[in-house]
Amino acid sequence: MSRFQAGSLSTKSVVDLTPLPADIPKVEEVGATSAPLKSAAFFIGAYCKPYNEDFMLCKNENRDPAHCLKEGRRVTRCAQDLLTKMQQNCMEQFAAHYECLERNNQEYYLCRKPERKLNACMFEKLGLTKTIPGGGSQGQQVHELSNPIYKAMQK
Amino acid sequence: MPPAGGFEPIKYKRNLPTRGPGAYVILGGVTAICAFGFYRLGKGNLEKRELEREKVWARIHLVPLLMAEGDRDTYRRRAAAVEREREIMKNVPGWQVGKSVYSNPKYEQTSIVVL
């Protein structure tokens, strides 16, 4: 006959609220959810390229989290800077695109219409373009196809 | 006796009305439709590959941002754990706080959290 026995280990989830050590400079976290981040991903890649590459090269040197804190803060500040600029300049198109992504399983190909508007606005106001690296022999950009085969059923 | 004006001519010709397009037309039509379908399929496969690449690159662009955030959190919790360890082991002479059990300078993720 079996009887419930309390385990020797606690099953409560542990939340460690200790703040960062005081000698580490403070940085606000980005705090954006997945759809706005996905909407802004290519612009983050274009705008923050030097910081991102610096951080990844640093991580390649050493995987210790303590090793790349400085580069990591730069990456976060750059992303915040870009998101603030997007909000100031293209908030309407940005919101339309990420809400479309939220409704469509976060698939880019179902949201080409708001995406084109956002890309146009970003190029006009901030001079950033969405470029997918690589792209086959012709360097084709799938988001610029005029008559794609995979598209939303309803226009 | 024959009827007046003679007998009408005997109907001996076969009566075969045309019955739609011929065999070669149907064969050709089916072949053409299949060829167009396979062409679209091939184009669609190439496009699907490109869509997948777009998705992958979006994630690649976000990796440094998310990793930086995760690193700060890991570092914060590790520092707190080391502080706890220092407090617990303060009466043990010769105890090195936060020392790895492996004699390897490579970074190792901690698998045990001292509460």
UniProtKB/TrEMBL annotation, chain A:
<dbReference type="GO" id="GO:0005743">
    <property type="term" value="C:mitochondrial inner membrane"/>
</dbReference>
<keyword id="KW-0496">Mitochondrion</keyword>
<dbReference type="InterPro" id="IPR016680">
    <property type="entry name" value="NDUFA8"/>
</dbReference>
<comment type="function">
    <text>Accessory subunit of the mitochondrial membrane respiratory chain NADH dehydrogenase (Complex I), that is believed not to be involved in catalysis. Complex I functions in the transfer of electrons from NADH to the respiratory chain. The immediate electron acceptor for the enzyme is believed to be ubiquinone.</text>
</comment>
<comment type="similarity">
    <text>Belongs to the complex I NDUFA8 subunit family.</text>
</comment>
<keyword id="KW-1015">Disulfide bond</keyword>
<keyword id="KW-0249">Electron transport</keyword>
<keyword id="KW-0830">Ubiquinone</keyword>
<keyword id="KW-0677">Repeat</keyword>
<dbReference type="GO" id="GO:0006120">
    <property type="term" value="P:mitochondrial electron transport, NADH to ubiquinone"/>
</dbReference>
<keyword id="KW-0472">Membrane</keyword>
<keyword id="KW-0813">Transport</keyword>
<keyword id="KW-0679">Respiratory chain</keyword>
<protein>
    <recommendedName>
        <fullName>NADH-ubiquinone oxidoreductase</fullName>
    </recommendedName>
</protein>
<keyword id="KW-0999">Mitochondrion inner membrane</keyword>
Automatic annotation (TrEMBL), chain B:
<dbReference type="GO" id="GO:0045271">
    <property type="term" value="C:respiratory chain complex I"/>
</dbReference>
<keyword id="KW-0249">Electron transport</keyword>
<feature type="transmembrane region" description="Helical">
    <location>
        <begin position="22"/>
        <end position="41"/>
    </location>
</feature>
<keyword id="KW-0812">Transmembrane</keyword>
<dbReference type="InterPro" id="IPR009346">
    <property type="entry name" value="GRIM-19"/>
</dbReference>
<keyword id="KW-1133">Transmembrane helix</keyword>
<keyword id="KW-0472">Membrane</keyword>
<dbReference type="Pfam" id="PF06212">
    <property type="entry name" value="GRIM-19"/>
</dbReference>
<keyword id="KW-0679">Respiratory chain</keyword>
<keyword id="KW-0999">Mitochondrion inner membrane</keyword>
<dbReference type="GO" id="GO:0005743">
    <property type="term" value="C:mitochondrial inner membrane"/>
</dbReference>
<comment type="function">
    <text>Complex I functions in the transfer of electrons from NADH to the respiratory chain. Accessory subunit of the mitochondrial membrane respiratory chain NADH dehydrogenase (Complex I), that is believed not to be involved in catalysis.</text>
</comment>
<comment type="similarity">
    <text>Belongs to the complex I NDUFA13 subunit family.</text>
</comment>
<protein>
    <recommendedName>
        <fullName>NADH dehydrogenase [ubiquinone] 1 alpha subcomplex subunit 13</fullName>
    </recommendedName>
</protein>
<keyword id="KW-0813">Transport</keyword>
<keyword id="KW-0496">Mitochondrion</keyword>
